[in-house]
Every structure is written in structure tokens, then in C-alpha cells.
Amino acid sequence: MVKIVELDAPLVIGAGVAGLSVALGLDQAYVVTSQEPGSTWWAQGGIAAAVGGGDSPQAHARDTVAVSGGLSAGEAVEILTAGGPDAIERLIAFGAQFDRDLDGHLILGQEAGHGTRRVVHADGDATGAEVMRALNEAVAASDRVSVIQARVVDLVRTRHRVAGVVTADGKKRTAYLAPAVVMATGGVGQMYSHTTNPAGVTGEGIVLAGRAGARLADLEFTQFHPTALLVGKDPMPLVTEAIRGEGATLVDPQGRRFMDQYHRDGELAPRDIVARAIYWQYDRGSAAYLDARRIPGFHERFPTVTAHAMSVGLDPVDDLLPVSPAAHFFMGGIDVDVRGRTSVEGLWAVGECSASGVHGANRLASNSLLEGLVFGARVAADVSLGLEVPLGELRTPKDSLDLPVLAGPVLQELRKIMWERAGLIRTGTRLWDARSAILEMDPILRRTISGRNAAELGGMMVMSALRRSESRGGHYRADYPEPDPMQEHRTLIDPGPVEMAVIR
Fold first, then answer.
1. Higher-confidence position of 185 and 126
2. Catalytic residues
3. For 85-102, how does the pLDDT look when each residue is reduced to its tens digit (9 = 90+)?
4. CB-facing half-sphere around the CA of 168: CA atoms within 13 A
5. In the predicted model, is pLDDT for residue 341 greater than 80?
């Protein structure tokens, strides 16, 4: 038996920067969130926006396109970069406190791929936490946004549109019906054993959209951050790229720099190049360290990194920091247009779970929080035009009505397989091995909803990587190390049908 609750306003799944930007832009909204904090809270890097003298949205757009591997969508990029200054002003109006100089001007940071300083930060390396503080306070002060604490396990459909979600509380199931549903569930980092993403970032929103019939795109493009602290923690503490922007260098155990042999920009090369260079250091039996000892005022400028390092007995002022690449950001997801509309009526997607083409094959540093802000506002405006009260027969996938939610240790094995065989350096042999391993584990994984979702997503990510027999952006094939002009196109997936059950 499924309890049915009918809501009179749009339902937003996810309470990060994208989800709350949507909710705050609506006349009335319900936000469904679990207890797990999302990636926004952990974001150390800032928000890229053309707010400095001599900068422009056009220059920001050029830099965004330059690192995208030829796959960025021009209209989406123009919308993103043009909306940057207004997004910063909107956050300031919500009360966000960004770093400023003694004259009150915003301090702008330099990060890889940007032709000028245009990255706004808060408390040095705690931008995400400050953004979430401001947005949560705005939600708390609003009588237009209601928060529902629940775990979403699938979507509800009528014959022609998405009509709500099913949530789980133990064995109890509740269907929340709504005139519109917005997915804002974040990325896929926890699909890998090495990641900077918190525990709740498992890509489940992408899977659930696919199970409801929504088209998915670009699932082979994962961005691996070059510098996460290699200190045995899960998730791995991020060491923000801004530190390299301020002069930190990457060195081997003997203290020798090595990035110059991989790219003319050295430590400020695009993230995928830096990540592979560090990977190859370990692959040849060496190691990689970040040397930030010459950065003045490090403790005050980067308190988050300082705290992570000191928790394991390292002081960035005196010690080299052991670093390794880790899964960080997902360029693929639910295929959407520039309004956030998916291929299924009644369903929108925004933020990291969406694939508008704004990042192409590789995201420019600090464009992620900006994406949630700019496209969150756009989705809110469009959702208001597409409200429809759910009528008729309601259905949801049958297996979500009775399976337990949480997976066991087998999920950790899947994460290890994804990292070792479908991670930063890929080959056809490794990917087919990953595919075979996932198929072998499939019957066990499908005993729970979390395991089922991971098996489905992992399988689609691996197959997308196999289909792209070239290297481009965040997707690197050692057996096809160069880009192929014939493959300069997006990868689209239409997931197959699932067995449905009628709930009303």
C-alpha cells in the first residue's frame, strides 16, 4: 500500500545550490532532501563571473568553450556566462559574504583555464558552505518554500508525464504528487572509490529520471580533480585549485617539479591534463605532492585545506601535501534544453545531474556553482509555465515498492571496479572487464534500491565510455589517446522500459 499526498506546488528533489535556486525562484515550492549534505557544502573553489575590470561574459564564454573538448553548446555557454554578474549580486542580496579587499572590492582569484582573475571566493576556500548558509537562511525566512525530509526511490508517472515521486521510510512508501518535478540531485562521485564527493552523491537522480523514460547524455565524461589529499579518507579532502593559482607547485618525492613536461601552463594546465600527470607519477612508482610552503598567510587564506591537513598531522606551511586525482564533477546526466526541460513532460533537471552541454566534455574551473545559480533561476521561470495537476492512472516502477533501500559491502566493490577499470585512464580491455564484473554483481546489487541504481548507472557509464573510442575532455582512452574529429558529438542514451505498478 502506498500513501498518496497531493501537493499544490512544484516538487524540487535536492537542496544544494541548484535545487534551492529553483525553489527560491518559484511562487511556491516543496523541496525533498535526505539527511546527507550534497556537494555544494564541500565546494572549496569559488564562483566564476565576469565582474572584474577588463573582463566580460564573452571572454568568460571563450574560456569555457576552450576547455570543453569541442562539445559545449554555444547558447548554454552564453546564458551561463552572461548570467554570472547577476548571480553574484543575487547571492549578495541573500546575505552571502564574499572575500573583499580593504577598499571593499571583491577579491578575484585565478584558476586553471581562465584568462584572467574572475573567481569569487568566500573565506578563502569555503565558498560552497557560505553559499549554502545564505540560501538556507533565505529558505528559512520564506513562507513560500516547504522542506520534506525523505529518501526518494523513484518517480511517479501518468500515461504521458511525470507526476511526482515515491519516497521510502523503512518499508513504508509515500507518493507525493505534484504539478511539476525538478531533479537537482547532483553528480556521481560516489560511484568511484576515490572521490571528493560526500556519501549522498551517487547519481541516483540520473538513474530515476532514466527509469521514468528521460533521455540521458554524455555519461562517459567525469572530471577527476587533480589534487585530493591522499590520507586514507573517504571522501578524499579536496585541495582547491585556487592554491595552485596562488603559486603552489606539484613536485615528486625529491622536490622536483614535473608539470612542465606535460603542458606549457604547468600547474595551471586544464584539470584533466594535471590529473593524468599525477596519475602517471604513481603509475611509474613515484608519487606527487603539492608544495604550498611559499604562499604567504596560508592558514588564513585557506582555512578548510589547513584543517583537513592538520587533522592528519600535516601543516601546509611546513609540509608537502600528498595528493592524488579523485572523481569530482560529472559533465553528463539528464539531457535537458536551456530551459532545463527533459525529454519527458513534467520533469526538469538542473545542476550537476543535468546535461545541457554547458560544460561539454570538460568543465571550466568554478563554473559549477555558477551553473546551479544561473540555470536554477531559469528553470524556476520555465516550471511556472508548465504546471499540470496529475490526473488519471498513476504508475511507478514495481521494484521500488518493496526493495530495501541501502546496499551492503558489494557496493564498495563496485566503486573499486569503477575506479580501477573505468576511471581516470581507460582502455577497451579495462572497460569490458568492468562491464563483465558489473553484470556478475548485478543479481546481488539488485537486492536493494541503492545497489540497483548503482548497477544501472555504472553499466551505462561504462558502455558510454566504450562507445567513445577516442580521448576528449574528461574521457581518456589510453588505447585511443587522441581526439577523433568524427566523434565530436554528444552521446545520447534512451534507457529501456522498466516494469511498472499501478498505485492509483
1. 185
2. 271
3. 999 999 999 999 999 999
4. 17
5. yes
pTM for the model: 0.94
The residue among 124, 116, 117 whose CA lies nearest residue 316 is 124
Grid cell 546535461 in the structure block, residue: 355
Mean pLDDT, residues 101-123: 91
Sketch the domain layout of the chain as residue ranges.
2-186+331-383, 226-327, 403-482
246 pLDDT above the threshold of 80: yes
Write the CATH number of the domain with boundaries 403-482.
1.20.58.100
C-alpha span between 39 and 4 (Å, rounded) = 31
| Beta strand extents in 141-298 (DSSP E only) | 145-149, 151-157, 162-169, 172-177, 181-183, 216-217, 222-229, 249-251, 289-291
DSSP string, 283-311: HTT---EEE-TTSTTHHHH-HHHHHHHHT
Q: In terms of DSSP bridges, do strands 29-33 and 11-13 run parallel, antiparallel, or are they unpaired?
A: parallel
- Which amino acid would we find at residue 174? T
Tell whether the model's pLDDT for residue 38 goes beyond 90: no
Q: Which residues pair with 11 in a beta bridge?
A: 30, 181
Residues 6 or more apart whose Cβ sits within 8 Å of residue 256:
none
Q: Which residues of 275-303 are buried (b: 16+ CB within 10 A; e: fewer)?
A: bbbbbebeeeeebbbbbbeebeebeebbe
The average confidence (pLDDT) of the chain is 94
Contacts with 175 (C-beta within 8 Å, 6 or more apart), sequence order: 2, 3, 4, 5, 156, 164, 165, 166, 167, 394, 396, 503, 504
The per-residue pLDDT for range 485-504, each reduced to its tens digit, is 999 999 999 988 899 999 98
> What 3-state class would DSSP assign to 379?
helix
Determine the topology of domain 2-186+331-383 in CATH: FAD/NAD(P)-binding domain (3.50.50)
What topology does CATH give the domain 226-327?
Answer: Flavocytochrome C3; Chain A, domain 1 (3.90.700)
pLDDT-based confidence at residue 416 (cuts at 50, 70, 90):
very high
Give 3-state DSSP helix, strand, coil % of the chain, rounded to 5.
35, 20, 45
220 DSSP assignment: T
Report d(CA 237, CA 383) in Å as an integer.
36
Q: What is the pLDDT of residue 36?
A: 72
What are the C-alpha distances in Å from 347 to residues 180, 397, 441, 483? Answer: 6, 16, 31, 34
